[in-house]
Amino acid sequence: MQGNRFERWLQNIYKTQDQEISCSECFDLVSHFVEVELSGEDAVAKMPQLKQHLDQCAVCREEYEALRDLRRLENEGGLPSLDDLQDLIP
Amino acid sequence: MTNTRTNQEWLHDLNASGSLQEAAIAELRVLLLRAALYFFSRNLGDFKGMDHNEIMQRAEDCAQDALIAVTNRLSDFRADSKFTTWAYKFAINIAMVTARRERWKDVSLDELSSSSESNFFEWTLQDKSDGIAPEQSAMQVEVREIIQDVIEHELTEKQRHVLFMMVFNDVPMDEVVRHLDVNRNAIYKLLHDARRKLKAGLQAHGIEFGETLTLFGASR
Fold it and tell me: How confident is the model at residue B118 (pLDDT cuts 50, 70, 90)?
């Protein structure tokens, strides 16, 4: 295990809470979290348990990041068209 | 494609019948395909060896599965986000599972499971003490021994198994889910319980957060 990964794992251990939300609960809440973030509100303060789960769960975090980036691009008018996305596939 | 429907219009049209519903489903399917392709375009490394048409077929399949999931769960939509944001997450979730499946399809998790314990013990024996003070080196050894002791004696076999695969071998959660025929919640619970035991073990020895990170951050 690389040093930085081990350090991250230690952080995860120490930031462990007795009660944490599940991946299903995270999935239910993540679209709201993204909208709150995009509106400029403090999503972390509003939904700390979700943020805690995202910090601990790599798979949910990756899905959240993709959803957030997709919606951000869409809001800014920069999301590639379907044709452009197909062209990105080698 | 410009997505101009309101949340109410999406729900109304998807629950309607005839051409109104067909048009909404067709529009939603394109949006879901776009979301799946967006995810794939960020993770092209998962599709090595596959040609354009094969990847496009996977994306089409993801969009279709996401469409079924979305329409089956319409009653769950609480309108606390844009409808399309809510729908996109299904496409991204399914695209993620598909992409990881492609990346790991040739890896035997049975073989990996049997070797992962030895990888862990190799890790515990590695000397990471270059360039740090002897007292820090001694503490590093102590932390590693505590972690090893908790893993060996306090974790259940299942917790250890999942920890070795995901933390020490980087197996994605969805592959572990598939391998063990459970769901994400079950795997997350196993890891959560393992983390709680490890945290308690370190704290029982008076080893605190900042001190531990400094100790291991310093050796990189």
Answer: low
Q: Which residue has 């979730």 as its token pair?
A: B93
Look at the block and give the residue holding tokens 């399949």.
Answer: B61
Domains with residue ranges and CATH for chain B: 7-104 (1.10.1740), 109-217 (1.10.10.10)
DSSP labels, B46-65: GGTT--HHHHHHHHHHHHHH
Write the residue in A7, A34, A57 that is nearest to B81 by C-beta.
A34
**Residues A45, A78 contacting (CB under 8 angstroms):** no
How many structural domains does chain A have? 1
Cα torsion B43, B46, B49, B54: sign: negative
ipTM of the complex: 0.96
Q: What is the pTM of this model?
A: 0.92
CA A67/CA A62 separation, integer angstroms: 9
Q: What is the pLDDT of residue B129?
A: 58
In the block, residue with structure tokens 């606390």:
B80
Which of B184, B209, B211, B212 best tests the A interface by mutation, with the highest count of A CBs <10 A?
B184
Q: Count CB neighbours of A54 within 10 A.
A: 21
Which residue from A10, A25, A14, A15 is spatially nearest to B188, judged by alpha carbons? A25
Amino acid at B45: G
User: Other C-beta atoms within 10 Å of A75: how many?
Assistant: 11
Question: How is residue B27 written in tokens?
Answer: 């529009």
In chain A, which residues have their Cβ closer than 8 Å to the Cβ of B92?
63, 66-67, 70
**pLDDT attached to residue A2:** 62
